[in-house]
Amino acid sequence: MNLAELTMAEFEAGLARTRTAIVPFGSVEEHGLHLPLGTDTFQIVEVARRAALEVPVFVAPPLHYGYCRSTRDHPGTLSLSPETVRRVAFDVGESLYRHGVRGLILASGHAGGLHMSALEEAGERLVEAFAESEVAVVCEYRWAQEEGLAGVVETGDDGHAGEIETSRILALDRALVKGTSPEEYPRLPRPFVARHKRPCWPGGVWGDPGKATPEKGEVLFTRCVARMVALVREMEARIAPA
Ligand SMILES: [Zn+2]
Q1: CB under 8 Å to 202, separation ≥6 — which residues?
Q2: What backbone phi and psi angles, to 5 degrees, belong to 24?
Q3: Domain regions of the chain by residue span
Q4: Which residue among 45, 51, 171, 229 is least enclosed by CB atoms within 10 Å?
């Protein structure tokens, strides 16, 4: 159930079918020369949408912004602070709880480490604040990586705007993919903190988008949707009946 399209009455009636909500988190972030800035949001919204076709679950409107660190200097990346991500996740979770939702799935299409930490911190605070709440924090992009490495993609180290994401956006809407970008891997000077990020990976790609196909993207969507459906069912089993 797409929460934004429900009426008040439909939302209330929906609580009899499910008390679980997926809140998708994306980003506005460069994805090479060939993928749109909304790539992370598009993927997680699609996974949540398809999951909701298979199992009763509320899908809240996505947060289109996330915390982006290593891409922050690339053109078009618009970042929140981790603090803002945490507060938005907490506030949305609190509101959903107030209205009867007990299972909350914070699902991110953006995989930044500190971005995910902010969501996990929100989850910690939510379970502490609301006695009947169950919270799951998911980096859905990691699912895609795990499934990709299980015989779907050829790139061993595929991280950003590479074979996985390009394949999934091709599967979603070929018109969103504007050609391709060269294979590239970031050269971050770890353990040093790079003051200037863009020279570390000028093309903004981590992996090889040239190996992407819509067929691979569809397989990845199917597998990740199955994982999301299983998680919703697991959540419903954990939360106390109304
Ligand atoms: Zn991405």
Answers
A1: 184
A2: -80, 135
A3: 3-238
A4: 229
Alpha-carbon torsion 105, 101, 52, 237, what sign? positive
pLDDT in tens, 51-103: 999 999 999 999 999 999 999 999 999 999 999 999 999 999 999 999 999 99
Report CA(145)–ligand 1 centroid distance (Å).
Answer: 11
Produce one character per residue of 25-48: b if its CB has 16 or more CB atoms within 10 Å, e if not. bbbbbbbbebbbbbbbbbbbbbbb
Helix (H), strand (E) at residue 139 = strand 134-139
CA of 113 to the centre of ligand 1 (A): 13
The owner of tokens 């997680």 is 44
Q: Please give the structure tokens belonging to residue 184.
A: 């590239």
Q: What is the pLDDT of residues 110-155, one digit of tens each?
A: 999 999 999 999 999 999 999 999 999 999 999 999 999 999 999 9
CA of 16 from ligand 1 middle (Å) equals 35
136: enclosing H helix or E strand: strand 134-139
As a whole number of angstroms, the distance between CA 186 and CA 240 comes to 46
d(CA 165, CA 160): 7
Whether the per-residue pLDDT at 17 is higher than 80: the answer is yes
Spacing, Cα 82 to ligand 1 middle (Å): 17
Omega before residue 202 within 30° of 0, cis: no
CATH of domain 3-238: 3.40.50.10310
**In the block, residue with structure tokens 């409107």:** 61
Structure tokens at 238: 């954990």
